[in-house]
Amino acid sequence: MGFFDFLSRKKNHSPPELPDPAPEEFPPEENLAAPENPDADFPSAPKGAAGEDSAPATPPSPEGTESDAAPGVSSPEGSSSAGAPDDPRAERIESDAPPEDSSPEEPKSAAAPKDSSPEGATEKTEALKPDGAAPENPDAPDAPDVPDALEAFEAFQGPSVMDPQERAAKVKETEDKLLSELDSFFPDEGAAPPSAPGPRPPAAAFDSRPAGEPQAPFPVLDPNYQALSSLFNLEESLPPLPDPQSEMGRLRALLIERELKQIRHLTQVVDDPQALAQTLSSVITEAILIRESKDDKLNTVLAPTVEKIFTSAVRRNPENLANQIFPVIGPAIRRSISDTFLSMLQSLNQTLEMSLSLKGLKWRLEAWRVHKPFSEIVLLHTLLYHVEEIYLIHADSGLILDHLVYEGGEARDAELVAAMFTAIRDFIRDSFSVGQKENLDNLRFGERTIYLQRADKIFMACVVRGNPPASLTRDLQDALELMVVSSADELEKFTGDPTPFKKNRRFFQPFLEAQYEDKPRQLPFLVRMVPALALIFLCLFGVQRLYNRSADQEIQSREASLAQVHRAGQNFSQAVFNAKFEAAISLLNEEPGLAVGNVTLSPTGEMEVVCFRDELAADPALILTRKGGLSPGQFRLLIKPYASLDAPIVRERVSRIINPSPRVTVTYDEANKTIRLRGEAKLGWINDAKEKALATLGVDSVDTSEIKDPDHERMLDLKDQIDATVIHFPLNGANPVPEDALKLEEAVDKLTSLEKLAGDMGVSVSLIIYGHADSTGSDLFNYNLSMDRTKTVAALLYAKGSTMPIRNYGMGAQFSPKGEDGAPLDSQDSRKIELRAVIGN
Amino acid sequence: MINKKICMLGAFCVGKTALVRQYVSSIFSDNYLSTVGVKISKKVVPQALGEDEVALVLWDMEGQDNYSTVNLSYLRGANGLLFVVDGTRGESLSVALKLRAEALKILGQGVPGYFLINKADLEPEWEISEKVLNSLESKGVKIIKTSAKTGLNVEKTFSDLTFAMMEKA
Question: For the segment B110-169, what is each residue's pLDDT rounded down to a tens digit?
Fold first, then answer.
């Protein structure tokens, strides 16, 4: 049988209605399942369910349509869904099937017994799917339709769960895959335990894909697709087929039968627009996706078409478009209009309110004084805002450190909100891939603004209602930085406990409080209007009277009122000046060393100020002009000298007299009139300074307990060490015992250091040596011996170059203990000398 | 009250959100998840390791098969991690392992993290065998079988994790 004969036969037996229901059911399911389960050979549950739904839904085709040889009708799915048990067509197709078709049926027939009812349909599916069993092309992704249908059908036939064997195989496969992945994820955590299976080989039997190979997100187009379609186009130009009955024909059939069948199937798919559409439908989305990711030509190509569609749709039915857009644009327009109205109303309200109130008049005056438009002054004073909440958040984790709410505010779930703020901030930063330094600064909704600020590890979200001045964010940032400094340690060690951060509330509390300055005591409108109404009434009355006068009178009165206004202005500015002047004078009085006496207005219009000034005080003229804001022409100073007892002045006075080095600090205790010196200085200077300070005005006593002369201290220290030295001698010997020889050396060294130090300081130093002997022997002998002992030391000292005056005393045995009965005692302790260093005269 | 941040990670449809829902008391609307890629909820655990109360802030991250850096920045500062795996889908374990590797890069080793093998109510249909789980456990990964449907081990998971995090602190 010829190729085209076969095709036409198939077409003849395929009714046109059949393909429709089934193809619509399966491909979407396939697409759904694809990303979750990219292994095409995993039959998944959803497919089964779909099969169940679709197969019975397929209408049994009427016999009459069979003969319709409509072109492009047959599709494999269409045929599969023809499997209604009572459909006799199945039998016919089977009997019409060419003899060569029966051979591939054999291997599949093993599966047939489990299909209880529509055997014919199953066989039909097989017949139309001759390449289904082709071993060299198991993964052919362009043939989803046929196996899909088969799977669906099997799923329909079989139980809803997988065949246990199949399941076991699948679990085994997953297991092997996961185990090998496990090893790659824990490379340095030792070898796999003995229970783990060996490497890949067993898995390879189940999985033809290499383990590490990334899985395509969806089935890729068959690369042969293009070639096949061109083959199809070339069909007409191919050389004629040999007669099937000829030897050549039979040989041909014998040799390339399998390939012919494949070609036949593929050609069928390409040839039949329905089938082609069917095939394309399952890949078209992916194709668009792939193309879209490669370049933007798709947009360019589609744009004119879409524009045309849009234009014609709008032209045909503009109402529809309006209906669609209205929900989006409507609120936006409403919002915009209401915002505009609101702000207009607000400014009107404010201006009206202010222009008629006492405060308004005050502000008008202020505007007039500082030469600014009234509106600006109103704005300045009504710029109200309210910090409602402050969230202090750990920047990394998003955990809350502290949450402050204004009094009467609603406490939210701070932990959740803090985390959400962090997520939003991260989200924005990641989405716009901005640098680490750039951050989301604020979020605005309605009249609330959330200011987001960050310092080091803290992230702050501050909910503000109203219009805060620009300085607010600066101040908040300052407070935040204070917190970073004061809680640096806690931040470093933060593990989720917010308690240590409560101490920082003092930095933020002021922001939540000082908001109500201008809001309170709103009197009822009418009450507020009373003074204004009275004023208007008076004005009207005055105007009426003015009109009643003659022109001359009018001019006169106008001149008079102008003069009045002028005078009033003068009075006003005078009052302002007076206030300013008083403030400046009080500044003078506050300044140490200055005192203000009489203040009089001179005939030339200057204020004459009698000022008592200590020679150490600041210049009063500078204070009046720089701090007080007066101009030099507005005052004249009459300076009278006097000596002030103000603490800073006394301190300064003493300092000038004693001229301390930078290492000395001078303080003055006003209550006790005591000058206190601290630090280090030469003894001579200290004594001198004390004397001078005591002679200074305002000083009753001088405290020098905290000022030290380091050299003097060292001298005293050396003296103490020398005085503590005792050197022992052997019986009847004038040279020290060997164990004390070193001690003597040291003592001599100390004496020479002391002598040098004293020399530097201009202090004299001398030495007294007391020699002792034990009580054995005669008194004379002991006296001489003790004297000799002192001389040994003196000699040693002089040998070292000392010129220190030495007085040596032989004490004999006067101070040496005797035995119980007064008998002499041979005591090593008694044979010694003692040293006394004497500083000064 | 001590606060702790827990991140829940895992592939699509493994039941992260369902687990959270089983557990928490307050939660943001579902809209946030699709907008920002993370859903945040809170649960206060009474009495843990000497503390009166611990507030767990759960960051339920959008299911990711193709995990991206956007989501992973949410991991910063996490005190505990839960990797949720769907027992009936082997590949969800692969995803969890990948996510674990990424999380380790960001957080280092010190953060306690469990693998939750979810859908324990469907255990007969699991694709992930005991052998795989044993192997995983032998690598030092703590595994808990959970079911968001029946609530199996859900409370236990969070209380164990809270305990582990408090010990760490």
Answer: 889 999 999 998 888 898 989 899 998 998 889 999 988 888 898 889 888 988 888 876
Q: Does the distance separating the beta carbons of B70 and A195 come in below 8 Å? A: no
Q: Domain for residue A252, yes or no? A: no
Whether residue B150 lies within 8 A of chain A, CB to CB, comes out as no
Interface of B with A in 28-57 (CB under 8 A): 28, 32, 36-38, 40-42, 54-55, 57
Task: Assess whether pLDDT exceeds 70 at residue A266.
Answer: yes
Structure tokens at A280: 């394309």
pLDDT reading at A77 higher than 50: no
Mean pLDDT, range A780-796, rounded to an integer: 87
Angle at Cα A740 formed by Cα A736 and Cα A746, nearest 5°?
Answer: 110
Angle formed by the axes of helices A145-157 and A45-57, nearest 10°: 90
Please, which residues have CB within 8 angstroms of residue B116's CB and are 6 or more apart in sequence? B19, B82, B83, B84, B85, B143, B144, B145, B146, B157
Q: Is A170 on the interface with B (CB under 8 A)?
A: yes
Do A13 and A154 belong to one domain?
Answer: yes
Q: Are residues A11 and A138 in the same domain?
A: yes
pLDDT at A55: 39
Task: Kindly tell me if the per-residue pLDDT of A209 is higher than 50.
Answer: no
> ipTM of the assembly?
0.79
Residue A768: domain span: 712-839
CB contact (8 A) between residue A415 and residue B42: yes
Of all residues in chain B, the percent with pLDDT exceeding 90 is 15
Check CB contact under 8 Å for A178 and B126: no
List the structure tokens of A125.
């599916």
Cα separation, A585 vs A595, in Å, equals: 9
